[in-house]
Amino acid sequence: MDFKKILGLKFGDLVGLDIGSSCVKLVQLNRNGNGYEVLAAGIVPIDTAGEKTPQAVELRTIRAVTECCREASIQNNYAVGSVCGPDVAVRYFKFPTIPAEEVASAVSLEAEQVCPFGIDDSAIDYELIPDSSDTIRGVLVAATNKVVRQKEKLLKEASLNPVLMDVDGLALFNCLNETEDFASDQAIAILNVGHTFSTLVISGDNCVPFVRDTNHAGQNITGELINRTGLSRKQVFDTLFEDGGDIEQQQLVEKNLDAACEVLIDDINGTLRFYSAQKKTLFIEKIYVCGGFSQARGFIDLLNSRLPAEAILWNPFEKMPCRGGSRFEDLLQNKGPSLAVAAGLAMRSI
Predict the structure, then answer these.
(1) Residue 153 burial by CB count (10 A; 0-12/13-18/19+): exposed, middle or buried?
(2) Residues 225-234: contacts with CB within 8 Å, 24+ apart?
(3) What angle do CA 237, 241, 247 make, to 5 degrees?
(4) Is 321 helix (H, G, I), strand (E, B) or coil?
(5) Does 119 have pLDDT greater than 50?
(6) Nearest Cα to 217, choosing from 18, 19, 22?
(7) φ and ψ at 169, to 5 degrees?
(8) pLDDT digit string (tens) for 29-72?
(9) Distance between CA atoms of residues 211 and 200, nearest Å
(10) pTM above 0.90, yes or no
(11) How far apart are CA 311 and CA 173, in angstroms?
């Protein structure tokens, strides 16, 4: 499947579906002269109990996608999906001036050099960035056909029509640019901490994004807390997200949260230092934090104490009116940070 398919659809026909390993997130938007308004939204957990063969997990994921679409009462089945992880690469490129018909071949050669996986069985796309100098600049995206087809299959089996495949990091970057005001020369970052993967996006020169995925995320942090505290998974989850547990239990989780997040925080700090050294950019001033784990008790405070930039919990729906009624409004207010990727997907147009 190509990353783009030209079908003559207008904006608002697309449903953004962020299919993770623990839940399915959905957003549908409408764009008018004042910005965006929410038409539909939903979050449905994927049943992870019992048998965990690939076939069983796939069936449960399809059921969750179907249920999420039904509960959100989406108006059509044109869907935008996304991929992330080690089978996906987003890279900046810069070429000397070459004929337009040679750009695609040059991008493929560049992808072969910089991607950590073979590109013979991969989907590749790119977007050029306007440049007044005698160079051709842009961003290329590559993903193995396996990971793209897996997401495409999930959407099709749920009776959806996958018309575009995006990348989590670029969807986040697009969503931030559409919903937040900041200077073009202001260095900012987005941190999306999901269940299986964390994605760090850094704004570059002329708004060129730097995207990095890591497989240390919410499930690793929760597992480390279970090991360190001796609490059950439910006790840890309730303490982090549900105001559960007694004072002693809450203090125990709080005491061990720093150590449980050590690997993730070290990785973020290392990436920020690498980026600053490579790009010689301005100091990164702010980190917009989203994703399912972003709302864990004490997590934002911990990031602020350990990272060199201000970390803020980012809800991209704070400035968006909601046409769908109170059921969507409550979801967006309480779980908006978890829906950032889905919102970015819903902002795509074809």
Answers:
(1) middle
(2) 225/253, 225/256, 225/257, 225/260, 228/256, 228/259, 228/260, 229/253, 229/256
(3) 80
(4) coil
(5) yes
(6) 22
(7) -60, -40
(8) 998 888 899 999 999 999 988 778 999 999 999 999 999 999 99
(9) 6
(10) yes
(11) 16
